[in-house]
Q: What sequence folds into this?
């Protein structure tokens, strides 16, 4: 469903990603772990189509289409979703209007009928229950005045509403208390099925206590230096990234 081939990316002549290759098949959950500055958020931003990066080499294929050649909204229409590490505030944009506009934009692009207000409201109520969100948030501007946890919960609500086929979550667990983490995890597990793929980007193993990954990767200094099952995350939690840095990385590679 998502295939990254030898992706090399720079910002202002500084190379951040140094040949990342990764394949996520239908129904799989992959986790990428790594220290600060390793290139995890850069990878997420590139997949989503954020400007400001120089693509030096490589491809990102979504269902066989190189999405580096299409706009972010077209990527969304194809089923791609990015949950941001730091969700933006949209002053003046009503949360319910934003969600309705987003889903109808995708439905229109796919040749489906748009939802009317009543149909969408019923649809949305069910999703809000899954993330335990107060209906009052629908009347507020998108993320404006939200706490960090509320912003992350709103991101998961957007994911549940849009029902994407390929989900990238960039440190969705950061700054969450245990109760919020469980709610976020439940939202992810709700959408998990054999046709939907996830890429979870995280520093810590604790999210993976609730969302069990099929594959775990370690990204250090712009390179994937190790790949394994979920036991790799436990090893990182226990021993840190020291054995995967610099000259030590080659001796710690796992397949």
A:
């Amino acid at each position: 469903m998502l295939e990254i081939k030898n992706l090399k990316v720079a910002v202002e002549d500084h190379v951040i990603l140094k040949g990342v290759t990764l394949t996520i098949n239908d129904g799989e959950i992959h986790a990428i772990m790594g220290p600060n500055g390793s290139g995890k958020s850069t990878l997420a931003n590139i997949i989503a189509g954020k400007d400001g990066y120089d693509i030096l080499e490589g491809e990102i294929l979504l269902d066989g289409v190189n999405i580096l050649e299409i706009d972010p909204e077209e990527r969304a229409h194809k089923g791609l979703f990015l949950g941001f590490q730091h969700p933006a505030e949209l002053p003046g944009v009503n949360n319910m209007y934003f969600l309705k506009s987003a889903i109808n934009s995708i439905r229109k692009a796919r040749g489906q009928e748009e939802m009317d207000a009543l149909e969408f409201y019923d649809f949305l109520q069910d999703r809000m229950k899954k993330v335990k969100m107060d209906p009052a948030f629908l009347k507020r501007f998108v993320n404006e005045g939200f706490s960090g946890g509320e912003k992350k919960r709103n991101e998961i609500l957007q994911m549940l509403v849009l029902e994407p086929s390929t989900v990238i979550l960039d440190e969705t667990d950061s700054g969450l208390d245990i109760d919020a983490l469980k709610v976020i995890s439940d939202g992810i597990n709700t959408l998990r099925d054999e046709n939907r793929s996830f890429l979870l980007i995280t520093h810590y193993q604790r999210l993976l206590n609730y969302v069990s990954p099929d594959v775990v990767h370690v990204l250090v200094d712009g390179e994937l230096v190790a790949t394994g099952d979920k036991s790799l995350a436990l090893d990182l939690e226990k021993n840190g990234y020291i054995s995967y840095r610099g000259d030590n990385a080659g001796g710690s590679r796992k397949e």
